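Re: that chain you flagged

S.,

Sorry for the slow reply, it's been a week of failed gels. I finally had a moment to sit down with the sequence you sent. For the record, here it is as I used it:
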Amino acid sequence: SVNRVVIGLGVTGLSCARYLHRLGVPFSVVDTRPDAPGLGILRREMPEVPVFAGDYPPELISGASELVVSPGLSLDAPVVQQARAAGVDIIGDIDLFVQAATAPVIGITGSNAKSTVTELVGEMARAARLDVGVGGNLGTPALDLLAPGRELYVLELSSFQLERAGDLNLAVATVLNLSPDHLDRHGSMPRYHQA
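Prediction finished late last night. Pasting the structure tokens below so you have them in one place:
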């Protein structure tokens, strides 16, 4: 059986929890912060979901089959390293999104102008009278865009989201530019480029 654990309770982690809850699949939530931002909302909306804020049982992580890691959490974080060492699959919200999306997806990334280009492409799709979902790293989390009848998705994708993503099978992908940014997270330009 699949034992999923969502790591991180910010905007994206909460979006992942809501998505898994809608699917009716069992999962747990872990946030290493005792005062996780989405904790109150999660407990109100999904009181039956096991949630651990601050401390968590290590066996929850090492026994997971899949870790859904929020983009705000570095892949070098101890909780992620523990999962890797135990052979746990590590995915992100974008992986869940592309598994569920039934319409073509346009992905836009780069150091600068991602939001502007994402919004412009979304506006062009709207002008063409397409039912389009626009978001991702910008505004609405990707999983919250999923809807029957959508004809296109336009996603702004951050390097933090892409560093944990598998094969996204995008209809169109573009890297607008790449300049020294987020090196505190990625460590070097080659690692940033790889993400």
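What I noticed first: The mean pLDDT is 90.

Talk soon,
D.
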